[in-house]
Amino acid sequence: MEEISFLSGNIRGWAGPDRDGEHAWSYRAPLYASLLEDRAPHLVGFQEFQEANLADLQPALSFHACALGRQCGIGQYVPLFWDTRRFECLQTESFWLSDSPESKAIGWDANNERAVTWAELQDLASDRALLVINTHFDHVGEEARIRSTHLILDLVARWPIETPVIILGDFNSSPYHPVRGTLYTGRSFGLFAEAGFMDAYRSHTGVWPPPATFHNYQGEAYGADQYGTWYIDWPLTRNLRVRTAEIVRHHQGSLPLSDHYPVYVTATYVDATW
Question: Are the C-beta atoms of 250 and 219 separated by less than 8 Å?
């Protein structure tokens, strides 16, 4: 049975010419497009994405449809892309992470509006339905991260328990190790785990503690606490068997793709035969 490949990444895609100086998006965009062309993932979820980024990345995703989702702040989105040669979209929607999901509002103790974009896809290679979700949790509010987790689990509960599910995102918290002196705890991951979700990277590699995905443009030089603490981009799966998982690092000496490493995963359905 054919594998499903997916990539999740916070691209920090701010399009302003002076944003981030030497790490401005205009310099990094060709590198990200090259990565997409090289890996050719069936499914992609981005965070800190702006509409202007479509012009830079859509050519590398030429067979993909896009659900941009709801706007947060002054122009951020959490879009989903799917390869139309492999998947047909049955339905897609987006909502804000707050007590009023249909209204643009800052939820609970969050610092900014946050959103979810989801799609129910029909796998043309297997005639199965697959639920794919992309999100970006708040970087300040612990209550917001917990409540956001509950909203996503309420969404998942609308499908039969055996439905394969992929959740992509920047969760702004580590599953395993709190950031000292902050409220960045593993409680969101604990709720997902109780609902049967697995961290794709660790379920494949078994690595403990997990390496950092956030590195502040510094790569391996970022802080002694990077292991475990700054592993904050953890794709989740349920009812899928992860075959490979990789934190995609930039080449030494080259410009970083972003201040986060993307994570690339391949998986099959649990009853796939090899």
Answer: yes
Token digits of residue 38 = 């090289």
Residue 115 pLDDT class (50, 70, 90 cuts)? very high
pLDDT at 223 over 70: no
Contact 40, 269 (CB under 8 A): no
How far is 263 from 234, CA to CA, in rounded Å?
8
Residue pair 6/42 in contact by the 8 Å Cβ criterion: yes
Determine the Cα–Cα distance for residues 15 and 269; give it in Å rounded to an integer. Answer: 38
Please give the domain boundaries of the chain with CATH numbers for all domains.
Answer: 4-269 (3.60.10.10)
DSSP class of residue 245? E
Got the DSSP string for 121-161? EEETTTTEEEEEEEEE--SS-HHHHHHHHHHHHHHHTTS-T
Q: How far apart are CA 169 and CA 87, in angstroms?
A: 20
Q: Say which residues have a Cβ less than 8 Å from residue 65's Cβ, sequence separation at least 6.
A: 81, 82, 84, 89
- Which of 230, 234, 232, 221 has the alpha carbon at shortest distance from 263? 234
Selection from 194, 196, 195, 199 nearest residue 171 by Cα: 199
3-class DSSP state of 192 = helix
pLDDT digits (tens, 9 = 90+) for 31-76: 999 999 999 999 999 999 999 999 999 999 999 999 999 999 989 9
68: left (phi over 0), alpha (psi -120 to 50) or beta: alpha
Residue 165 burial (CB count, 10 A)? 21
CB 6 within 8 A of CB 41: yes
Residue listed under structure tokens 């960045």: 184
Asked if residues 263 and 246 have their Cβ atoms less than 8 Å apart, the reply is yes
